[in-house]
Design a protein that fits this description.
Elements (H helix, E strand, L loop, with lengths): L7 H19 L28 E6 L3 H10 L1 H7 L2 E6 L3 H10 L6 E4 L2 H9 L8 H10 L2 H4 L3 E2 L2 E2 L2 E7 L2 E4 L1 H7 L7 H13 L3 E3 L11 H24 L8 H14 L32 E5 L21 E4 L9 E12 L4 H10 L2 H9 L18 H10 L4 E5 L1 H4 L2 H16 L4 H11 L2
Parallel strand pairs: 1-2, 1-3, 8-9, 11-12
Antiparallel strand pairs: 3-11, 4-5, 6-11, 7-9, 7-10
Helix pairs in contact: 6-12, 10-11, 16-17
Family: Belongs to the bacterial solute-binding protein 1 family.
Organism: Micromonospora inaquosa
Protein name: Sugar ABC transporter substrate-binding protein
């Protein structure tokens, strides 16, 4: 994948202008603060003062336009405190971060999407525990369900940052209205709707799991969502930690239930072909036939809103929107599958702790949300600052105290399983291999 970054000249020019303003205001070129310092706008950042001229490096997988939004989101913090945040995004982040850390070239902070990787670094004594201010801020602002994923052996190392909701089904409100179809609120209703749509000659579902080296991951999300809906969070937790075998009969049942949709030729794969076309369809393109009438539904996370072509109206009355992936056993609660990033520290200098604390604050999450295309589980987020209808729905789901949230299972597992045999096993499964053989193979790989 090509990586595009904002021209460095823009930062150089901005830096020169900022230094000139500082020198004029304070009489010294050593002051990094802009002319905003001391203004009413900077009052919220007073608690982060005292680190003027210091630099903090951050490393993550977020690139391109999203990286530009990150830089914009903490610009006022930089201007007011004089701390410079040096951000680097890398498409090979998950592979390169361990290399850098083990080679003694760790960043100050990293945004890690996999709790399993947080544990790997914590177990190797590579991470710094949170400062008192950061820990207090995190415990005040983040749900316990999220904090536990950044906790290793009783110590909180990773503070949740951005989030996404995976328990969504994308559809076309315009098409549903035209055909008289109703958004289902139960699994049984969703299956009945699928049968109704199939009878019209339209394939009710479309899916794609091709994603380069990560091919297979969208199918793992399907399995995780169904396990939560058939077995509940307790069994889900036992499965992701290997307290029960990967091929436990309850997991076999859940995979087979997912297969009643994913491996059903009557249902799949609108716009692309039959079931086997799922394995060769790029995940980013898989839901696009929803807007052309070639398929009716596509299960994918909230971030899929960014995959639709420019000009697509993503709204309840638009070209595309999403509904909550319905519960199967209502006695198991209202499960929500999701994912996100965790801010971890490899150094603990005072300015690094200040940035880590800031990223957990109300000031930061609302600053980032105002720029669009972002949600968080942080309870200090004001939903009024969230513009996108699908992001608003995501925040409502994340802040729903009746919901049962669980993190993406493959991200919780050891990488060799979650991002290895599980991904590969799902490709084999889609291509026709039986459930028992696939799950036995994944179970055998778990060391």
């Amino acid at each position: 994948m090509a990586v595009f970054t904002r021209p460095r000249q823009a930062f150089v020019i901005a830096g020169v202008i900022g230094l000139a303003l500082s020198a004029t205001a304070c009489g010294t070129g050593d002051d990094k603060k802009s002319s905003k310092a001391g203004s009413a706008e900077c009052a919220a950042y007073d608690k982060y003062e005292g680190h003027d001229g210091k630099k903090v490096s951050i490393y993550a997988s977020i690139r391109d336009a999203e990286a530009d939004l990150l830089r914009d989101s903490w610009k006022t913090f930089e201007d007011c405190t004089g701390i410079e945040i040096d951000y680097e995004g890398n498409a090979e982040f998950e592979a390169q971060l361990p290399v850098r850390v083990d080679g003694g070239n760790a960043p100050d902070l990293a945004f890690v999407p996999q709790p399993g990787l947080v544990k790997r670094f914590a177990d190797a004594s590579k991470l710094k525990s949170l400062g008192a201010d950061t820990k207090t801020m995190a415990e005040q602002n983040l749900p316990a369900d999220w904090l536990k994923y950044g906790t290793v052996n009783g110590t909180l190392y990773g503070v949740p940052l951005g989030a996404n909701v995976k328990s969504f089904v994308w559809y076309s409100p315009k098409l549903f209205k035209e055909k008289g179809w109703t958004v289902p609120t139960s699994w049984d209703d969703m299956i009945k709707l699928s049968d109704t749509i199939a009878a019209t000659g339209v394939k009710p579902w479309c899916a794609g799991i091709e994603s380069g080296d990560a091919t297979g991951w969208p199918a793992t999300d399907w399995i995780e969502d169904v396990i939560l809906r058939t077995q509940g969070p307790e069994v889900y937790d036992q499965w992701t930690t290997h307290a029960i075998p990967f091929n436990d009969p309850r997991i076999v049942d859940a995979v087979n239930r997912a297969g009643t949709i994913l491996k059903n030729e009557k249902y799949m794969n609108g716009g692309f072909g039959g079931v086997k076309s799922i394995g060769t369809t790029a995940f980013g393109e898989a839901g696009l036939p929803v807007t052309t009438g070639k398929c009716a539904m596509h299960r994918q996370a909230s971030f899929y809103a960014n995959q639709f072509p420019e000009g697509t109206k993503v709204a309840e009355d638009g070209d595309a929107f999403a509904f909550y992936f319905p519960a199967i056993d209502t006695a198991k609660g209202k499960p929500v599958l999701g994912a996100g990033e965790f801010v971890v520290g490899f150094t603990d200098r005072p300015e690094v702790q200040a940035v880590q604390t800031y990223l957990a604050s109300a000031e930061y999450v609302n600053s980032r949300a105002k720029l669009g295309n972002w949600v968080t589980a942080n309870n200090k987020l004001d939903i009024a600052n969230v513009a996108s209808p699908i992001d608003k729905l995501s925040v409502q789901i994340l802040q729903d105290k009746t919901g049962v949230f669980r993190f993406d299972g493959s991200d919780l597992m050891p990488a060799a399983v979650g991002a290895g045999t599980f991904w590969k096993g799902m490709v084999e499964w889609i291509n026709g291999k039986d459930t028992a053989s696939v799950l036995q193979g994944i179970e055998s790989s778990w060391k």
